[in-house]
Specification:
585 residues, alpha/beta, Ubiquitin-like (UB roll), Alpha-Beta Plaits, Rossmann fold, five-stranded mixed β-sheet, four-stranded parallel β-sheet, 19 helices, binds iron/sulfur cluster
């Protein structure tokens, strides 16, 4: 046994684990899954719900396995009568104070509470069940809170505070009156929430659910006077398959396109095409700022959660954000201008529906500064990957049996640089691929892959020498990490030229609109890493892997926009930002 390892017994099975492991981790190493509810690895390790209790030989009472340290020589029993009785009592008490409407709850397919009750064989509740009314907060554009389904696990509070450093929700009052609420008792839409939705992704029950636009989209599809264009984001194609039993991270791009056609959309274009356009604009903007030495460092602007964070918490740095709209908004803008003019369709008769891994995009589509000169909003409805999966399942489409189909030309043709936008580091790498060629003058000695910006670490620093220019880059995901980087810059401890920030840890592959995975599933599978790997595999398979090589994007500039960052591009593809404070949301 090495020095840093300890040996203990779980239900009579010997297991060796690193010193510092918890009993929960040791049990997993022994092949035993101890049930949990409040536990989220690295984010919420409180031992407060007491579902994970175990008996320890020689110990006093029951111990919460998620926080109890494993020790050398320890003997743990996870399935005794005492343990089962305690867990059952705890769960029955939780259920007695939970508004159960399982058949009509949005989480009925993936509710951890329901799953736990089934696994523990709960077929009755011995306590008086509270007759609860819904306790709704519908003030935010992306989610609905219903505290009558809240089990006070505090997972949402932990991710909002620790991972995102926003901290606009917390537990209020004490004892039976304890409940989760937004800052100052206001609605979530009335405080400085950035709409990332990570709290929804953390919630084990239907207490936090996404706002849905499925009915409005179906109505648009059924309206013969409307031309309905659907545009899925890069990360959707490596998340959607989860719902239909595909391996985590496997690209289902072809089946996704086939499903969208069968749902009745008139055109199936690809946000990847607009991601290539984004690189033309953002790369040009970066090179221009470097040459002028102005507004440096430049931050990416693809993520609306990050944008809203900057508007609330660092309004003095808004000039450092790229002025580029996000790919979703560029896509919608070009559909309602370039495509509308090419096809002779009135822009007001076009309905653009985006499919996003993201909840903040639901807010972004309503931002007034995004309105086009022709009076249209670029995107009409932003659905999440989960909403799309519900539409597919609801239409009886047997997803696994679908053939692989291609996007519609021309706004469906993209490069490998675009598809990696969905992973943390993807926008950075795509921009570097093009900026390096522009700065070097040709692509002869310019690398295609920038390995140092890849991976799931929250902060990745890298320096590149391109065309005689030294470029100091920083790639960040998770807003708490972004805050650390900003503070280091302000303290003079760090300096960069180009910084990519994605609000969701790991980037959009881990967006809150993607199919859900419980903390246990995430301990067993690196969900975001697998999805990112799926995007990089797609990139590898593409014939063109630099955005400026996309012939359809070249044609867009030659026929319609003129120069990147030129006058016309500025109106359709760029935007401005709004300083906000706590109350100005
Ligand atoms: S959406 Fe994001 S910022 Fe808003 S409460 Fe949830 S975790 Fe916090
Ligand atoms: S809203 Fe959900 S995540 Fe937050 S405390 Fe309640 S049950 Fe837990
Ligand atoms: S990282 Fe992606 S999914 Fe998350 S808020 Fe930003 S754009 Fe949305």
């Amino acid at each position: 046994m090495s020095e840093n390892m300890i040996n203990l017994k779980i239900d009579g099975v010997s297991v060796e684990v690193p010193a510092g492991s918890t009993v929960l981790q040791a049990a997993l190493a022994a092949g035993v899954r101890i049930p949990t509810l409040c536990y989220m690895k690295d984010a919420n390790e409180l031992g407060s719900c007491r579902i994970c209790v175990v008996e320890i030989k020689g110990g006093r009472g029951l111990a919460a396995a998620c926080v109890y340290p494993a020790a050398d020589g320890m003997e743990v029993f996870t399935n005794t009568e005492k343990v089962r009785a305690s867990r059952r009592q705890t769960l029955e008490l939780i259920l007695s104070n939970h508004r159960m409407e399982c058949p009509t709850c949005e989480r009925n397919g993936d509710c951890e509470l329901r799953r736990l009750a089934a696994d523990m064989g709960i077929d009755s509740i011995r306590y008086e069940v509270e007759d609860l009314e819904p306790q709704l907060d519908e003030s935010a554009p992306h989610l609905v809170r219903d505290n009558s389904k809240c089990i006070l696990c505090r997972r949402c509070v932990a991710v909002c505070r620790k991972n995102q450093q926003v901290g606009v929700i917390s537990a209020a009052d004490r004892g039976f009156a304890t409940h989760i609420e937004s800052a100052f008792g206001r609605g979530l839409g009335e405080v400085s929430c950035v709409y990332c939705g990570q709290c929804v992704a953390a919630c084990p029950t239907g207490a936090l659910t996404l706002k849905r636009s499925i009915d409005a989209v179906r109505a648009a599809i059924d309206d013969p006077s409307k031309h309905v264009v659907v545009v899925p984001a890069p990360a959707v194609r490596v998340g959607l398959g989860d719902r239909f039993g595909m391996p985590v991270g496997e690209s289902v791009q072809g089946k996704m396109v086939a499903a969208l056609r069968r749902l009745g959309f008139d055109k199936v274009f690809d946000v990847d095409w607009a991601a290539d356009v984004t690189i033309m604009e953002e790369g040009t903007e970066l090179v221009g700022r470097i040459k002028a030495g102005e507004k440096m460092p430049m931050f990416t602007s693809c993520c609306p959660g990050w944008i809203k964070y900057m508007e609330h918490y660092h309004a003095d740095m808004l000039d450092n954000l790229s002025s580029c709209r996000s790919p979703q908004q560029m896509m919608g803008g070009l559909v309602k201008t370039y495509y509308a003019e090419r096809e002779g369709i009135a822009p007001e008769d076009i309905v653009v529906v985006s499919i996003m891994p993201c909840t903040a995009k639901k807010f972004e589509v309503s931002r007034e500064e995004q309105r086009l000169e022709n009076g249209c909003m670029p995107v009409d409805y932003s659905l999440t990957t989960r909403e799309l999966s519900d539409m597919i399942a609801g239409a009886g489409i047997m997803f696994g049996l679908l053939p692989d189909e291609a996007f519609d030309p021309v706004l469906g043709d993209s490069t490998g640089a675009a598809v990696i936008f969905g992973a943390s580091g993807g926008v950075m790498e795509a921009a570097l691929r093009t900026a390096a060629v522009v700065l070097a003058g040709d692509d002869a000695d310019v690398p295609l892959v920038f390995e140092d910006v890849r991976g799931m670490e929250g902060v990745k620093e890298a320096e590149y020498e391109v065309g005689g220019v030294k470029l100091r880059t920083c790639t960040v995901s998770g807003l708490a990490n972004a805050e650390k980087v900003i503070r280091a810059m302000e303290a003079g401890e760090a300096a960069y030229d180009f910084i990519e920030v994605m609000a969701c840890p790991g980037g959009c592959v881990n967006g809150a609109g993607q199919p859900m995975h419980s903390p246990f599933e995430r301990m067993m599978t690196d969900v975001k890493g697998e999805r990112a790997a799926g995007l990089y595999a797609l990139d590898d398979s593409m014939p063109r892997r630099r955005s400026h090589e996309n012939p359809e994007v070249k044609a867009l500039y030659a026929e319609y926009l003129g120069e990147p960052c030129g006058h016309k591009a500025h109106h359709i593809l760029h935007t401005e930002y709004v300083p906000r404070d706590t109350y100005n949301v």
